[in-house]
Amino acid sequence: IGLEALGVTLDRGHIVIDSHCQTNVKGLFAIGDCAGAPWLAHKASHEGRVAVEVIAGHKVAFEPKAIPAVVFTDPELCWAGLTESQAEKEGIRVSVAKFPWGASGRAVTLDRTDGLTKLVLDPDTHRILGVGIVGPGAGEMIAEGALAIEMGANATDLKLTIHPHPTLTETMMESAEVFFGQATHVFRPKRG
Question: Would the pTM of this model clear 0.85, i.e. be above it?
């Protein structure tokens, strides 16, 4: 499309942008799929907002800690932030807390106990680094995980947040309780 003629820097076919969504050519911005992974509409929307704000002269940047992703299968599969496999690949030490939906009262009433909520945490600070959820409606639930990551929440913050009972979102709180060995609906020995 002539980007090379303008001198726009590309990386494997994608336009390289900075945290302001601006290319190396002053005044030229790019957002969405053309600016690289992840190729998600909600990521593009946020990049668009940043680009408009920058063009309007505001000091903003696109620096998300977690961009949620959802696979709309049955059951749904979603994640935000650091995954276990990424942590292993990058040599980052993590703790993982899992809450099986078979122990969720709401999942039982829905006859959908085939789910799991997982937290990936910093073992020292207990900060939530990643969240993975599989189950019906998981795509609706992942926003809480993304918010926790963006706000720097830790397992105690999530554990102490009162969730309505019985709900599937309660499995987020229960996962944090599992981390401490105190889950109401799942037995796990306390951390040593």
Answer: yes
